[in-house]
Design goal:
2 domains, 6 helices, alpha/beta, 14% strand, three-stranded mixed sheet, Zincin-like, single chain
Length: 195
């Protein structure tokens, strides 16, 4: 399999593989790894690549069916996200007995939420377009980071306590979240992206 993009990086220790939105395999490799080794790595992951390409096609079709977000959609989603998260975060913070500093709502390409060591919580405004329990699970997840800045056992004990449905919400995000990112990407590019 030779149809992949190879990116070489200094300081990189191992090979990694992802499929981009166009369905292209992208390999990031250390400078010292021979091309033959990269080819073998890609060939050994052929089934994974094919499954991910099929998944990307399904995401693209669903996003095209729903259409690109509009300017009005974005404004509404940001407003609704602020309102819903401003209600969810205090509820979970009180349940866990923690304090937070600030809630920020913006687009994040690779995350649905994040928590800083200063107690600032950041959320992706696209959560406002998802089922309520998904938005709340992301809020609960980030609130738990106010107490545990890792994903250890204590973190998951707290998350289980304040948000028992977090596993089903995570599964939903993993299966459906890419469609929302794709629709926002279509908005940014001013139209529909092809497969």
């Amino acid at each position: 399999m030779d149809d992949y993009l190879l990116i070489r990086k200094a300081g990189r220790r191992r090979l990694s593989l992802k499929i981009d939105e166009e369905g292209r395999a992208v390999v990031v490799a250390p400078l010292w790894v021979p091309k033959r080794t990269v080819d073998e790595f890609v060939a050994s992951n052929a089934r994974f690549i094919e499954r991910r390409r099929e998944s990307e096609k399904l995401v693209a079709r669903e996003a095209e069916r729903l259409g690109a977000y509009t300017e009005e959609d974005i404004k509404r989603l940001k407003k609704v996200a602020r309102e819903k998260l401003s209600a969810a975060v205090p509820k979970f913070a009180e349940a866990l007995g923690v304090k937070y500093n600030r809630i920020t709502v913006r687009y994040q390409k690779t995350k649905w939420g994040s928590c800083s060591s200063a107690g600032n919580l950041n959320f992706n405004f696209l959560l406002a377009d998802m089922p309520e329990e998904v938005l709340e699970a992301v809020a609960a997840h980030e609130v738990c980071h106010l107490k545990n800045m890792n994903h250890g056992a204590a973190f998951y004990r707290d998350l289980d306590k304040i948000c028992p449905w977090h596993k089903s919400a995570r599964k939903w995000l993993k299966e459906e979240g890419s469609v929302y990112h794709r629709r926002y990407g279509m908005y940014l590019s001013g139209g529909v992206r092809g497969e």
